[in-house]
Amino acid sequence: MSITTFLQHCLTGISLGGAYGLIAIGYTLVYGILRLINFAHGDIFMMAGYFMIFALASFPWPIAIVITLVITTVMGVVIERLAYKPLRSSPRMSIMISAIGVSYLLQNLATYLFTAIPRGYPEIPLLKRIFRIGELSASLVTLMTPVLTIILVALLILLVNKTKTGMAMRAASKDFETAKLMGININRVITVTFAIGSLLAGIGSILYFTDRMSVTPFSGTLPGLKCFVAAVFGGIGNIPGAVIGGFFIGIVETLLVALGYSTFSDAFTFLLLIVMLLVKPTGLFGEKTVEKV
Amino acid sequence: MKRIVVFVLIALLACQFLFAGGKAESAGGEKEIVIGVFEPQTGENGGGGFQEVLGIRYANKVYPTVTVGGETYKVRLVEADNKSDKTEAVTAAQSLISSGASVIIGSYGSGVSIAAGDIFLDNQVPAIGASCTNPQVTFGNDYYFRVCFLDPFQGTVMANYAWQEGAKKAAVITQLGDDYSSGLGNFFKRAFLQLGGNVVSEQQFQTNTTDFKSILTNIKAANPDVIFAPSSIATAPLIIKQARELGITAKIMAGDTWENSSIIENAGASAEGVVLSTFFDDADPATEEAAKFITGFKSYLVENKQPDIIPAVSALGYDAYLVALEAIKAANSTKGPAIRDALVDVSVEGVTGKIVFDENGDADKDLAFIKVVKDGQFKFLKTVSVL
């Protein structure tokens, strides 16, 4: 493999990893606060793809992006209100099953509304501009994805550590009941969590699909699962961990395919999940769980 | 009061059993024969499968009845979605059998057809494949027939075309675990090597992959003249666009699945110059039936909110239905084994040409249409016949 080919592979991997990282944050945030694995997250990501297709059909791209992000955010919050909130005091298993239900509902709704024929993702000419550095060639979106991911994560960490809302989020994730007793409006915290998660899934969706140009009702399934693994790998509940997990999976997957082992590229992701759960169930940067008496 | 309600409910239940009893007798006393439609309507091949179903539904609209033993039977289509999945295919096939289907049509995608083949064979219900091109579908299965050409033929056609265009180095991209893709890829490779060409890169990808950049980067490094990438409709625009984005200028070629307007729609300008082989050309109707079909089906497509470009698989679905009716008529029976025996000798002037079956149950077709994407449309390039 020549140096340029190798660099080209790395570029692809980092870019894919960036998009994975953004989606993985959604899993990690929700888990951190509700101890819920939001299985519908990958499908929110897919729906954001469809929203963008329709928004861009009638608006110029800067407005279309804003519309898509707003609708996606609202959808995430509404799903929480309708499907998760009524179950908050039920056993944790019920709420997880509800999440799986929402996931299938969204997939089949999309099949019903938009058919299973893949829809072309519209091009934003600016993002699609192709850069050539010597033999390397990449579109702007490929170069932009990892940078944007890191900026967004930095902002999110600032939000969690420096603002009052962030403090409330941290409190809720430490101890849900006590946070409630201390007068934190827990409903607001959860709404904000779902809003941020869905917003990032929306941004991830734009970056991911601009590079991969076609959306089907099942587009969210596999990326969703992989990002879940990324979140577990980095230590579920930990924001930088999720992003590092995303980058790791993106890069390794790309390199495996590059070396001719495409048979094992998906298997690797899930093998990683199994090994991680066996060896270090809390993930790379996960907090140690202490059993309370 | 309660007792009356219970009584009424029991009476209603009893009625249901009464109606369910008569298989060939519908509620109106009219005789009925069931044709099972075994197609993917969701999943990876959901789009293409649906187009095939449209062809079958349209054929049913045009020819809604069949005469058996001097009596007119109404043909009822029962559709089962095999979800492009080999496990689901078995369930779907079984549900069609239990719904009393006399003949089965389908499926789009060779893998699911192979998976369900044994069920049709064991239950002695003949199946007619419309567009499944892998040889394994009908091979060794007395109850599976098909109305399209086969992959060894299609692969040879494309290899010959590439060779005639002066290509010396080819790259092949196939989908792991997909019988259609890997089969056709192999036949292309074999034919191309025989002609004296060189296959410089062979790449595989997983189902539902959306990122082809890594395999395309490898292909770019091998610098081929043509890329042969038989794959599903969902995959096609991704391969085409990402190849062009990486600066690959080689000619991209594929098989029959790619003749679908959604590919041009999704790949846009990058699709220009893509070459594929297919079963049918609506600009050049081969038979009288074809001319009638083209005008009628176009307005049917519009009614169903589809673009008015006739997909080849719809034409094949239509043909499979015609063959099924003809066989039922010739067998003069609604029983599977009798229809199967009639299929062996059936001869139909279909939309895609004359259809007669050889000893394997494959349509004797030796003509493929090669089309190229030009100005955002599939343009007929030439017909190729081998052998």
Quick rundown:
Chain A is mainly alpha-helical.
Structure, explained:
The complex is a heterodimer of chains A (293) and B (387). Chain A is mainly α. Chain A is 75% helix and 4% strand. Chain A has a domain at 19-220. Chain A has helices at 3-34, 41-58, 61-84, 92-114, 125-128, 140-162, 164-174, 176-181, 186-212, 221-234, 239-258, 262-279, and strands at residues 119-120, 130-133, 136-139, 214-215. In chain A, the strands form two sheets. A two-stranded antiparallel sheet of chain A has the order 1-4. In chain A, strands 2-3 form a two-stranded antiparallel sheet. In chain A, a hairpin with a 2-residue loop joins strand 2 (130-133) and strand 3. Chain A is globular. The N and C termini of chain A lie far apart (57 Å). Chain B has two domains: 12-149 and 286-356, 3-Layer(aba) Sandwich (Rossmann fold), CATH 3.40.50; 152-278 and 369-384, 3-Layer(aba) Sandwich (Rossmann fold). A seven-stranded mixed β-sheet of chain B has the order 8-7-9-10-11-14-15, with helices on both faces. Chain B has a six-stranded mixed β-sheet with strand order 2-3-1-4-5-6. Chain B is built from twelve helices and 15 strands. Residues 18-26 of chain B have low confidence and may be disordered. The relative contact order of chain B is 0.13.
